[in-house]
Write a structure and sequence with these properties.
The chain is of the alpha+beta class. Helix content is 38%, strand content 20%. Strand 2 and strand 3 form a beta hairpin. The N and C termini lie far apart (53 Å).
Length: 305
């Protein structure tokens, strides 16, 4: 017996591109995995699907199966719009990072846990005052689902040709640095950290390693009330961008966009000093950028363009 020609899909729109005169091709994530779908006529002003198939929204769809082509969305109803992810540039760029990691690490069928993770992250991103903290948590959870789970609790280095495997218990009073090894996929004890090459890793402060352990182990709700110093946030952002880019063998477009935006913001701030700022621009940026990673040159994520 053949598959039904029509099927229902509860999905999040991760990416879309124009196709033809009035259509769009959508890359979506559902509980059973990724799908590429065609939305006929969605760009027409009177289309009933307009407004229900926005970027980063969650929608219930009735889909027509098509052989040797994209399946076609016949009907759509938005379930969650998450409007701030399209209205606010900072949150929207972070949402692009969420989507980009799914599109780069996963193809075809996936576990329902990935869909649940992305739904939860986008919903939290809509409201959280500290999106950087949320993104670092999301990255750790996604890497685990993708089969790239880093080892943060035991040293992945080698001594005399044998695995080190020393337990890692960073404390605030530690006066030594730990390390991160991209190739081996995890953290290094202070002794092994001295041997890692800069291109394949780097040093980690005790605070950064402690946070990586917590981000991987805890639910996000358990992390919200913990102090998250700006210096630690900047260090984690730099190292995780390098770690993920190493395993993807490509740069992350959304994070590069955010770096460029922050550079322009700092330049405009210096140029506008003493002359006042545009009130609306300042209000939208202060909550997300002030006091966070990227405030100074040392926190500019440390990766070259």
């Amino acid at each position: 017996m053949g598959r039904a020609k029509l099927y229902q899909l509860d999905a999040i729109i991760l990416e879309r591109r124009d196709h033809g005169e009035a259509d769009r091709v959508l890359k979506v994530l559902a509980a059973d995995g990724r799908h590429d779908l065609l939305a006929h006529g969605v760009r027409k002003p009177r289309s009933r699907k307009t407004g229900h198939l926005e970027l980063f929204c969650r929608a219930r769809m009735l889909v027509s199966r098509v052989q040797n082509s994209w399946d076609i969305i016949s009907q759509a109803e938005a379930v969650e719009l998450w409007g701030k992810l399209r209205e606010d540039f900072v949150r929207g760029t972070y949402a692009r990072h969420v989507a980009e990691l799914v599109l780069r690490f996963f193809e075809g069928e996936t576990e329902p846990a990935l869909f649940e993770l992305v739904c939860k992250t986008l919903a939290l991103l809509e409201e959280t005052p500290e999106p950087e903290r949320l993104l670092r948590w999301y990255e750790q959870q996604l890497l685990g689902l993708a089969g790239f789970r880093p080892e943060w609790r035991m040293c992945v280095g080698e001594r005399a040709g044998q695995p080190c495997r020393a337990p890692l218990r960073p404390r605030p009073e530690d006066d030594h640095s730990y390390g991160i090894d991209f190739e081996r996929g995890g953290a290094l004890c202070p002794e092994c950290a001295a041997q890692v090459a800069g291109a394949n890793g780097g040093l980690l402060s005790p605070s950064a390693l402690s946070w990586l352990q917590a981000l991987q182990r805890e639910d996000f709700a358990a992390l919200v009330a913990l102090p998250f110093p700006a210096r630690t946030a900047g260090e984690l952002a730099r190292q995780m961008e390098r770690y993920i880019s190493y395993h993807l063998e490509r740069r992350l477009a959304a994070l590069r966009m955010m770096r460029e935006y922050r550079r322009e913001y700092r330049q405009e701030s210096r140029a506008d000093a003493g002359q006042g700022r545009d009130a609306e621009r300042s209000e939208s940026l202060n909550g997300d950028l002030e006091g966070g990673p990227g405030d100074g040159p040392e926190d500019d994520y440390g990766t070259s363009s």
